[in-house]
Specification:
It is found in: Cell membrane. Belongs to the cytochrome c oxidase subunit 3 family. It holds the Pfam family COX3. The chain has 205 residues and is mainly alpha-helical. The chain has one domain: Cytochrome c oxidase, subunit III, four-helix bundle (Four Helix Bundle (Hemerythrin (Met), subunit A)). The protein has five helices and two strands. The protein has a two-stranded antiparallel ribbon with strand order 1-2. α1 runs parallel beside α5, α3 packs antiparallel against α4 and α4 packs antiparallel against α5. The chain is elongated and about 60 Å long. The N and C termini lie far apart (80 Å).
């Protein structure tokens, strides 16, 4: 019957499932949600950093007498690895924006290896430190800060590996659909920035 077909109103946007810009024509707020989550995570770290600075201010001698001096070489190398890995990961996002899935897999794979090296370096430092979790207030603060950050690195590593796993499916990531890549990169940058602050407070000051 002529004229009976329902026509799409002017100005509506057809569904584009999985499109980077949104779902079914609606704005995509997933990345904003990730950002809010990281703000909440940042508040936890800021609380730990504030506590560390308060301890440093009120304790007469900081670190307390008898605390072994922290080595800078290994943490410094770890810092270089983590900072560099953020640039490496960003090249992966640049690659997928050009529909280069192989490039995404290469750069995210290198990032994952760098993340593993960072965690191994941190564990090596733990096993060779001449202080334990309950040695004194500085030691407790040190293990709380570095351990909590290491937990976040581990989660970021899992996100990176998840992207690599999903990229095996043809068409899962493309220049039009790469939210998972963006989310993993944003989280990794967060972990990177937190470590820089931690390194300055704990190792350099």
């Amino acid at each position: 019957m002529q004229g009976s077909a329902i026509q799409q109103p002017q100005g509506t946007v057809p569904e584009q499932g999985g499109h980077h810009g949104g779902h079914g024509g609606h704005p995509d707020h997933r990345l904003f949600g990730i950002a809010l989550f990281l703000v909440a995570e940042s508040s936890i770290f800021m609380g730990l950093f504030a506590a560390f600075l308060i301890y440093r201010t009120v304790v007469p001698v900081w670190p307390p007498e008898g605390t072994p001096e922290l080595e800078l070489l290994l943490p410094g190398i770890n810092t270089l690895i983590l900072v560099t890995s953020s640039f490496v990961m960003h090249k992966g996002q640049d690659a997928i924006k050009k529909n280069d899935v192989s490039g995404l897999q290469l750069w995210f794979g290198i990032t994952a290896v760098m993340g593993v090296i960072f965690l191994i370096g941190q564990m090596y430092e733990y096993f060779h430190l001449e202080m334990g979790l309950t040695t004194n207030l500085f030691a407790s603060s040190f293990y709380a800060l570095t351990g909590f950050h290491g937990l976040h690195v581990s989660f970021g590593l899992l996100l990176t590996l998840a992207v690599l796993w999903r990229s095996r499916k043809p068409g899962h990531y493309s220049s039009e659909s790469f939210f998972g890549v963006e989310a993993a990169e944003l989280y990794w940058h967060f972990v990177d920035v937190i470590w820089i602050i931690l390194f300055i407070l704990v190792y350099l000051l």
